[in-house]
Write a structure and sequence with these properties.
With 318 residues, this protein is of the alpha/beta class. The protein is 47% helix and 14% strand. Strands 1, 2, 3, 4, 7, 8, 9 and 12 form an eight-stranded parallel beta sheet that branches. Strands 5-6 form a two-stranded antiparallel ribbon. Strands 10-11 form a two-stranded parallel sheet.
């Protein structure tokens, strides 16, 4: 799959992490076997690493890939952050802002690293540590940082401090609130929207003779995100689908999923919701609906699948 994407001239290759494989090791492995693909993390969990450790990783991968690395960061959610990493999740917007500032400062190497924020303080006050400078000279002083964001305030923050926005699931016809959040964030920048700012969104593509059989392949993933990727009280993915206008449907799926009735939760994902965030069905239908994605907010569409599906995606959007 990776070799075919590189051969077809795809823009980039992305890895992710939750509480299994990390995002960095596979990217380094696959990156060593490609030449044209940019290499991005979607996303590295910022609570899992100190900002300085992330800066070290970013500079290293950028050197190894000869300047192809994109640092995608995100806050994950309370279940993973507090349950797996054992650190407080609170104040995610403030944490993200400080984290990005420290990573950029470390990569620039303009002096020993010192920072005084509410979440991060370097060096640690009252301790024997001293300000240090990254010993590796970066290939680029500004490695692009893209932020994974689903809520309006987080999207605005990505537009304000980031070089790109990783949107996750997306619906071209239900994205007005996201466009407004982006504009709010760009308005906080002195020069407005940077000309090279990118927006990337996941686009499942399932070709099949009929819509329902294709939608059946997407329903389990959507049910997992609505019901299982967070708690009843805090689930950013659930909130995303609710903001798209599917709150009633998402609530039913979540309640079934958290009640242990997962098969019913999957079956409860309506086809019209699948069609809002995915291309499913016969080739003619895929071509017709692809136009809305070409004209929408995302400048990049994240797809995955075997080589034949990648060739179809290249045909639809190349």
């Amino acid at each position: 799959m990776v070799a075919e994407a590189d051969r077809l001239g795809f823009h980039s290759l992305w890895t992710s992490e939750a509480y299994g494989s990390d995002a960095v090791a596979p990217l380094a492995w696959w990156g060593s076997r490609t030449t044209g693909l940019r290499l991005g993390t979607a996303v590295m969990q910022l609570h899992a690493r100190t900002p300085a450790a992330t800066a070290m990783t970013a500079v290293t991968l950028d050197h190894l890939s000869e300047g192809r690395f994109i640092l995608g960061l995100g806050v994950s959610g309370p279940q993973v952050v507090e349950g797996w990493h054992g650190v407080p999740f609170g104040r995610p917007l403030e944490t993200t802002r400080e984290y990005v500032e420290i990573v950029r400062q470390a990569i620039r190497r303009q002096g020993p690293l010192e920072y005084r924020g509410r979440r991060y303080q370097l060096p640690l006050p009252g301790a024997p540590g001293k300000p240090l400078r990254l010993t590796v000279h970066p290939r680029r002083e500004q490695i692009p940082i893209w932020l994974g964001a689903e809520g309006p305030r987080n999207i605005a923050l990505a537009a304000e401090v980031g070089d790109g926005w990783l949107a996750g699931f997306h619906s071209p016809s239900r994205s007005g609130w996201q466009a407004r959040a982006l504009e709010e964030g760009f308005s906080r920048r002195a020069a407005g929207r940077p000309p090279d700012f990118e927006v990337a969104a996941i686009l499942p593509i399932v070709p099949a003779p009929d819509v329902e059989s294709a939608a059946d392949q997407v329903r389990p993933v959507l049910a997992l995100y609505m019901g299982g990727m967070g708690s009843r009280e805090t689930n950013f993915h659930f909130n995303l689908f609710a903001r798209m206008g599917f709150e009633g449907e998402a609530t039913r799926v979540r309640d079934l999923y958290l009640g242990g009735r997962r098969a019913e939760a999957v079956a409860a994902v309506p086809t019209r919701l699948v069609e809002a965030v995915a291309l499913v069905g016969p080739p003619a239908k895929l071509r017709e609906e692809a136009a809305a994605w070409r004209e929408g907010l995302p400048s990049l569409l994240l797809v995955s699948g075997p080589p034949p599906l990648l060739r179809l995606a290249a045909d639809l959007f190349g």
